[in-house]
Amino acid sequence: MRTLSAAMLAHLASDVQTLATLWTITRTDGQVFGFTDLDQPITYGGVTYQSAGGYTHSQIDMTSDMSTSNLEVNAIFDSSAITPASLEAGQWDYARVQVSLVNYADLTMGAVLLESGVLGQVVLLNGTYKAELRGLAQVMQQEQGQTYSPTCRAVFGDARCQIDLGPLTFSGSIASVAGLASWNDPTLTQVGPTVSFTDTRGQKVPTHTPFTIQIVPPTGGSFVADTSVRDNSQGTLTKVTGSPGNNQYSVSASGLYTFNSSAAGNEYFISYTYAIGFFAYGLVTFTSGQNAGFSMEVKSFSPGVVTLAMALPYPLAVGDTYTIKAGCDKQFGTCRDRYSNIVHFRGEPYIPGPDTILRPQG
């Protein structure tokens, strides 16, 4: 139910109206922005609403049956606050929006709340963007609560995890760029723990040359050393330094296993040790350069080399500074062995999964 002042109600009933809409947008990082469709700024309620006349919006679809109300806004990029890069980086995702109506000629009449909700899908096209405003009923259509999972459901370092990220947070700067989403920083010398991996699924040697298998360690880690290679009958192959013969293999420092042509199509179980990347699955936040303020998850890390999960909106540049936090792969073993935080583990690793339940019994 909307509440209107007597003065606003009389103004809406008059033949001549001086109305403007105010959009109050509160991002998830706490920053508040105001925009209006008037051709000049409006200051109301302590917020200055910048003129953004280059936008149009649809009618508000609202019903009394608790179905989701929605509204679409089409606008051009004419504000320094809303840029294509910031939208693509997700800075405006799930921002809270409140749309109000005021008499710009007499702000003492108060504001009429038209709609409130959160920003949904955003589409960019030819210098314009289309944003969807989802009503609060949208929340009621989403599944709430937690479900059983073998991995931890807590966010690393949050109130449920309770790990102190202070000692796990470091600063650095880009010494050289190694790709669209990777760079070198010799000051990052942190080394994660070395753990063993026992292959229980098996790997197949290609049926054509080269007869090689490249090991990709889990948790964004790096290959350390070979442990063993076994066949289906639990027989152990022999490791050699040169070209392998029958029932032999060689392995490089990067974890590239090479087999003899007689092994083509065979299945082997490769066990090895690997170093967990200290910052793998962590978070990088840039503090200078074009990407200042943007954050991205770390895909993998080895001493001096950071690789992000995705490229940032702007190219990486030498000298850009950042903060980087260690991460967690949410596995039971990592929580127990690396962080000694098993008492706060939010997962159920011992509940049988569908593969166990549905497999033939007896």
Walk me through the structure.
InterPro entries: Phage_phiJL001_Gp84 (IPR011928), Phage_phiJL001_Gp84_C (IPR018964). This is Bacteriophage phiJL001 Gp84 C-terminal domain-containing protein. Pfam families: Phage_BR0599, Phage_phiJL001_Gp84_N. Residues 277-355 form the Bacteriophage phiJL001 Gp84 C-terminal domain. Keywords: Plasmid. The chain has 362 residues and is mainly beta. The N and C termini lie far apart (63 Å). A hairpin with a 2-residue loop joins strand 8 (112-125) and strand 9. Helices cover 8% and strands 36% of the residues. The protein has three domains: 6-140, Pnp Oxidase, Chain A; 166-191 and 278-344, Beta Barrel (Elongation Factor Tu (Ef-tu), domain 3); 194-275, no CATH class. The protein has helices spanning 6-13, 84-88, 137-140, 332-338, 354-358, and strands spanning 19-26, 32-36, 42-44, 47-51, 55-57, 70-76, 96-103, 112-125, 128-135, 169-173, 176-179, 182-184, 194-197, 203-204, 212-214, 222-230, 238-239, 248-251, 256-259, 267-275, 283-286, 295-302, 305-308, 321-325. The protein has five helices and 24 strands. The strands form four sheets. A nine-stranded mixed sheet has the order 3-4-2-1-7-8-9-6-5. It has a seven-stranded antiparallel sheet with strand order 10-24-21-22-23-12-11, with no helix packed on it.
